[in-house]
C-alpha cells in the first residue's frame, strides 16, 4: 500500500470504456483515512481504511455502484495482486491459517475471532460478523455444531454466490455416530486437513484460474509438511501404543488416537467439562484416581478453558508427576498451524519418554 494514510475525498480509476473517472468517497466514508494504491495504468483506491475495517472490494463496489462498470472487468484491468478471493473463517481458527498458506498473497483472510484466548464455544457473533459474511467469496466453517452461528448469519447475509466449505462435511466422518459423539476438533486430524487443503485448492482455482499453479505448489509444500507430522505420529505409535492418557476435553483425541494412546478419562467427565456443566463427585473421584494410581502417562489439558474440576485434575496430575500437555482450539499467538501442531507433537513425545 502507498504510505502515509493520507486523507482523500476523491478516487480515480479507468472504466471499462477507457475513460478516467473520479468518484467521491467523502459522502460514504467521511473523515476516514485511506491508503492510495497505484495500478498499472490508473490509480485505484483499495480498502485498508484505518478505522472502519474496510476491505478493498468495498471501495471498488462503491465505485461501481456509482458508475455501472462490471466489477470483474474492472479487476481484470488491475495487476494480479489486486485480485484476491476473500475468505472468512472463525478467526484465530486453524482453517484460516491453512487458507492463507494455500492462497498466499492472493487470498485475504478475515478473522471473525481475533483474540487467541477466546473460547469459540462461548463466542457470540454480532452484526459486524454478518456484514463480513455478506462480502465474502469463500467461508470456511468447521461444522459439526462447533460454529453453527455461521449458518444462521449466512441466511441473512444476502450473499448467494458465497462458497461455503464445511470441514466436518469434507472429512467424510459420520457426524451422528451410533455410539459416542462426533468430535468436531478436526484440525487435530491430519487426514481431514489434507482433504480441506484439496478443497481449498479447487475453490481458489475456480476463483483465480490463472493462478492454479501457485495454489497447487503451495498445497504441495503444505501437505509435505503434514506428511512429516504424520510420520512423527507413526513413530510414536510404534513406541507408545497402548499407553493411557487423560483429557479435560476431547479436543486432541484425533491426534492421541493416531499415536495409539488410550483415553482412560471417564466419558462423563470430559462431556460435562465441554458442556460447561457440573461433574458428579463420583466421576470426579474416578478421574482424579487416574493420577494417584499412575494409570496415565500424560494429561492433555485445554488451557483455554478452566473450571474448579479441571483445576483439581491439573493439580492432581502435577502432584503425581504426570506430564501435562497443553492443548487449545485456536492458534497460539505468533504461531502458524504447522508450527503449532509440531510443538504439540513435541510435547507429547517428551511426555511419553
Structure overview:
- With 353 residues, the protein is of the alpha/beta class.
- It folds into 3 domains: 10-81, no CATH class; 84-227, Rossmann fold; 241-352, Rossmann fold, CATH 3.40.50.
- Helices cover 43% and strands 15% of the residues.
- It is built from 13 helices and 12 strands.
- The strands form 4 sheets. It has a 4-stranded parallel β-sheet, sandwiched between helices.
- Strand 7, helix 5 and strand 8 (163-166) form a beta-alpha-beta unit.
- Helix 3 packs across helix 7 (190-207) and helix 7 runs antiparallel to helix 8 (212-240).
- The longest helix has 29 residues, at 212-240.
- It is globular, with a radius of gyration of 24 Å.
- Residues 1-84 have low confidence and may be disordered.
Amino acid at each position: 500500500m502507498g504510505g502515509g494514510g493520507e486523507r482523500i475525498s476523491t478516487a480515480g480509476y479507468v472504466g471499462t470504456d477507457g475513460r478516467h473517472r473520479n468518484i467521491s468517497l467523502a459522502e460514504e466514508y467521511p473523515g476516514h483515512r485511506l491508503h492510495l494504491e497505484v495500478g498499472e495504468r490508473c490509480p485505484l483506491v483499495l480498502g485498508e481504511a484505518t478505522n472502519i475495517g474496510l476491505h478493498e472490494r468495498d471501495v471498488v463496489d462503491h465505485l461501481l455502484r456509482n458508475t455501472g462498470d462490471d466489477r470483474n472487468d474492472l479487476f481484470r484491468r488491475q495487476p494480479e495482486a489486486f485480485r484476491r478471493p476473500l475468505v472468512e473463517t472463525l478467526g484465530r481458527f486453524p482453517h484460516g491459517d491453512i487458507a492463507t498458506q494455500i492462497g498466499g498473497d492472493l487470498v485475504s483472510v478475515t478473522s471473525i475471532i481475533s483474540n487467541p484466548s477466546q473460547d469459540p464455544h462461548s463466542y457470540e457473533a454480532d452484526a459486524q460478523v454478518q456484514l463480513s459474511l455478506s462480502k465474502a467469496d469463500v467461508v470456511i466453517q468447521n461444522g459439526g455444531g462447533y460454529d453453527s452461528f455461521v449458518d444462521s448469519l449466512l441466511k441473512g447475509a444476502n450473499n448467494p454466490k458465497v462458497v461455503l466449505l464445511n470441514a466436518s462435511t469434507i472429512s467424510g466422518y459420520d457426524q451422528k455416530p451410533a455410539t459416542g459423539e462426533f468430535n468436531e476438533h478436526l484440525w487435530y486430524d491430519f487426514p481431514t486437513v489434507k482433504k480441506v487443503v484439496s478443497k481449498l485448492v479447487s475453490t481458489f482455482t475456480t476463483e483465480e484460474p490463472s493462478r492454479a499453479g501457485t495454489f497447487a505448489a503451495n498445497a504441495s509444500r503444505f501437505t509435505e509438511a503434514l506428511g512429516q507430522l504424520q510420520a512423527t505420529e507413526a513413530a510414536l505409535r510404534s513406541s507408545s501404543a497402548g499407553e493411557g492418557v487423560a483429557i479435560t476435553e476431547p479436543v486432541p483425541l484425533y491426534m492421541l488416537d493416531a499415536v495409539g494412546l488410550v483415553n482412560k478419562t471417564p466419558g462423563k467427565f470430559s462431556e460435562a467439562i465441554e458442556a460447561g456443566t457440573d461433574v458428579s463427585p463420583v466421576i470426579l473421584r474416578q478421574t482424579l484416581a487416574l493420577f494417584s494410581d499412575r494409570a496415565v502417562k500424560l494429561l492433555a489439558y485445554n488451557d483455554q478453558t478452566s473450571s474448579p474440576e479441571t483445576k483439581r485434575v491439573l493439580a492432581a496430575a502435577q502432584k503425581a508427576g504426570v506430564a501435562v500437555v497443553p492443548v487449545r482450539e485456536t492458534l497460539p499467538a505468533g504461531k502458524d498451524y504447522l508450527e503449532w501442531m509440531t510443538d504439540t507433537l513435541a510435547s507429547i513425545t517428551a511426555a511419553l519418554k
